[in-house]
Amino acid sequence: MAAKNLDSLPSSFCKLKFLETLIVSGCFRPEEVPVDLAGLQISGNLPENRTATGGSTSQVSLFGLCSLRELDLSDCHLSDGVIPSDFWRLSSLERLNLSGNDFTVIPEGIAQLSKLSFLQLGYCQRLLGIPNLPSTVQEVDAHVCSSLRPSSNFRDATTILWRIQNLAPNNEFCILLPGSGIPDWFGDRKMGCSVAIEKLPPEWHQVNFLGFAVCFVFASEHEIPEHTPVVSCKINDFRFSYAFSCGRGENEFVESDHLWLAYQPRARVENFHPYDWTQIKASFEVFGIGTRNKVKECAISLIYADR
């Protein structure tokens, strides 16, 4: 049963301890944005699948939503200072979508989301930096975040390498960013869509080998996405891919260079007998953003424990 014309939700909304998904995407016009997200304004549906979708009139708190696993606050015109400190106490949250908002910084408190695995920031065009994230985070989508500073944590490739080696060496990770500069610590690189390590060093698959990092730069020429874009990488016989959302269907994303960096831990490729490899070839593809997408440059690096 769904109630589509609710003026408000009762204050007891925060007691929905079994609510797992909350979608508030696009609910607020600029003049309606609540001063404090702890007093979030919501109205809308409460269907039986434990999802709330809404408009804006009643003040409720998110803090009591202890089972919330997915939260979508995209395109809500959220600005700096709106997200309160207790927001980061959503201990079950795994997926957070903050795309299309107006803040310049993300509070450091995001590091307290100990189960967060997926963070969407696409089209946050005022965002200057991405803070340290929990070690559980596996995907960061920051396409069209055109104001990101090169020195910000996740725009600084050295920080990403440190994270892989010291914080989460056993977790896969990928990040999508605007830009065209492949990090210097990628030793093997090539123009085009494939790159190879022609001769692997002796005993390359030794005990301190952690995994593979790959990176490539791509763009399309004046084409609007056809469907959900997917970036794909093949390392010898091992293939992996990630999908990302282009959000509003505008063409500003596909007209600019973007960089995709990914890490795969050794455990993910063990079934492909990497210890038998004498060389490694990595190839890259982008699907769903038109026929003229182009991989401009790519790179691969063997990652070892930082001694």
From TrEMBL:
Q: Look up keyword Repeat and say if it applies.
A: yes
Per its UniProt record, what PROSITE patterns does this chain match?
Answer: LRR
- The secretion signal range is none
The organism's superkingdom is given as Eukaryota
Q: Which Gene3D superfamilies match?
A: Ribonuclease Inhibitor
Task: Name the coiled-coil region(s).
Answer: none
- Record Pfam families: C-JID, LRR_8
**InterPro entries xref list:** C-JID (IPR045344), Leu-rich_rpt (IPR001611), Leu-rich_rpt_typical-subtyp (IPR003591), LRR_dom_sf (IPR032675), LRR_domain-containing (IPR050216)
Going by the UniProt record, its keywords in alphabetical order are: Leucine-rich repeat, Repeat
- Domain C-JID spans what residues? 177-306
Repeat among keywords: yes
What SUPFAM superfamilies does this protein's entry cite? L domain-like
The protein depicted here goes by the name Disease resistance-like protein DSC1
Mind giving the lineage of the organism this protein is from? Eukaryota, Viridiplantae, Streptophyta, Embryophyta, Tracheophyta
From the UniProt record, report the name of the gene that encodes this protein: DSC1_64
